[in-house]
Amino acid sequence: MATGRLGVGEMLGALNAALGPGGPVWFKETRARHLRARDFLAPRRALQARFGDEQVPEPVVTAVAGLQGPGVAPVLRCAPTPAGLALQLRRPAVFEHVLGSVAAYAAPAAPASSGPRVVLHCAALRGAPCTLRLSQLRAVLVADHLARALRSRGVSVRLVPAARDPHMRTFLQQLRVEWPAASESAATEALRSRALAELTSAQDGEALPPGILGRVCLKELVEEQGRSAGYDPNLDSCLVTEDLLSSLAELQEAVQNWPEDSSSGLAGTPNSGTDNCIVVHVVSCEEEFQQQKLDLLWHKLDDQAPLRQKHLVCGPVKVAGGPGTLTAPKYYELRLAQTQPGQRSSGFSLWLPSNLRCSAQPHRVSSASVLQLLLTLADNSVSTKGTKSGTFVMYNCARLATLFESYKHSMEQGLYPTFPPVSSLDFSLLHDEVSAPPGESAQAGGLAFPSQHPSLPQGEWLLLFNSILPFPDLLSQTAALAYTAPGLHITARTEMVRWKPGETLYTLFFILGWGTRVLRDRPVTCFCHQVCKFLVQLSMDFSSYYNRIHILGEPRPHLFGQMFARLQLLRAVRAVLHAGLAMLGLPPLNHI
Questions:
Q1: pLDDT digit string, tens, across residues 183-219
Q2: 485: left (phi over 0), alpha (psi -120 to 50) or beta
Q3: pLDDT tens profile 583-592
Q4: Are 35 and 457 in contact (CB under 8 A)?
Q5: Which of 27, 192, 436, 438 makes the best surface tag, with the fewest CB within 10 Å?
Q6: How many other C-beta atoms lie within 10 A of the C-beta of residue 307?
Q7: Strands 117-121 and 69-70
């Protein structure tokens, strides 16, 4: 019997354990044609490698069919098929378990511990917005999204540097980027004294530029760390300036004096964050070399500098048909001007300021080791058409809002009763199906399997099994930082997403993470494309279901049971959709 929140990871773990020692074999089905007959499959070839040409032992099949435990969904049947060992869940029981606690599935799975405190450093915010390049904007957006993802899992996060420029703060607010405002300047006296002691003698005839305190040698540190760490072997020295010391002082203060964090219950005490703290420098590829200098200089001048400093490098952003000097504010203004006036005056106006409308096309440059983000300035690239767009996601968000508003209005008029307690709903009525001839089995992928109903499920189970049930695991993955991995560079999410050239993806949240740069054979990708891809697929599945099924039926008592069960399902869809948008810093659209 299932206990606690059901989870895909827990289910797969229990299934693989039931087969005995060996690697993972089971996988979750996602395609509608396969979900007509099964939910999980252990492929035939994988089973042959485990058990030989013999059939899976009957005790093993029995153990799989009787699985129980935390996070494990109730099993209806498990049987050998031509495709392998197929398993189908007791779907009404899963509907009841999941839809009876919607809030648990709109949040990431609770971690065993909150992990280390994280300082996210985005050097691009030290300048003025008028000089902010698109590649730097990409780093800012990635840092903002990473902070949201980590905080959603209870991780204590500090953002550095504070946005001191008022114009920068205004621009960030337009983009709905949550970043701390200006704070008191950190003291630099101790760092300056240490830097002056470490300065190397000027070479013969070398004249230092104005404002330069001197040069500090970094060669020994690079050799000490080793090339395997990932530092550029050409790093030999660093010119020390007051601005550089100010940047280090702010980082030093952020690590050593952690403020009280009410969200995670951590109280800040002086010097308490150094040992249990990781610093992640989120930088554009153009700034990587300078950021490595700052990293090493911190180690050189501060004996209490965190041992764990990681670099998350964002790939380049190029603009097709535009000047190479196009800044982020100018690009924002251009895209806003190209937006159709009708959209600005509608509910989309709440959303457009935080979404630069663009055609984002991953484009390979020179070799497989570099992926750049290519944007176009053409007017025809700004469109609301198509299903793989942020516009489509927000449109379906508004459709959900309109649906529940319509139910509320009809209830106030007396057409529908008030929403009953969730515990009283009959979720066995959720079988949006296409009828099959009586007596026939559901067939999918060459296997025959007795169906729970004499029909083929199409939409409701697809929404729950592919979107609601796995959503907590997706959120947990997006907030996973491989901070214990060796090397300088950190992987926020290692799964690559390939898009065919020419596929048009709109809105700012596709700038967030697409494009990968491989550094010394270590892929460095950002994870937020996972959330974007998930939201698009959820919107497509919901739209298909909503176009086919009339949710608010005729006000007849014998139809209310199915209507309320469907409304509860769509409540869960709405909660997941809103939670996914919140991870990207986007408010849901409540009307069209």
A1: 666 667 777 787 777 776 555 456 667 778 888 888 8
A2: beta
A3: 877 788 887 6
A4: yes
A5: 438
A6: 11
A7: unpaired
